[in-house]
Specification:
four-stranded antiparallel beta sheet; about 80 residues
Length: about 80
């Protein structure tokens, strides 16, 4: 099993889509329209979309960090 990664999809400019850490994503999204930047958790060829429910930097980082934790299924 490989480590999960976060992929930040840039809908306005797809060439700028890239993998980032939770902290990098939180800082990047500050002051931006969150709906333009879907976030995917990528692990072992599977992708799951992460839905951000709050828009301050601390909350975004916390939500992404929690989403990266292994689930019962992963073990």
């Amino acid at each position: 099993m490989t480590e999960a990664k976060l992929l930040l999809v840039n809908l306005q400019d797809p060439t700028k889509t890239k993998y980032m850490s939770p902290k990098q994503i939180a800082i990047f999204l500050w002051g931006r329209r969150i709906s333009n930047y879907p976030i995917l958790k990528v692990q072992d060829g599977n992708t799951d979309q992460i839905v951000i429910t709050n828009c301050d930097i601390g909350s975004i980082k916390k939500q992404l960090t929690e989403a990266m934790r292994p689930t019962q299924e992963d073990n």
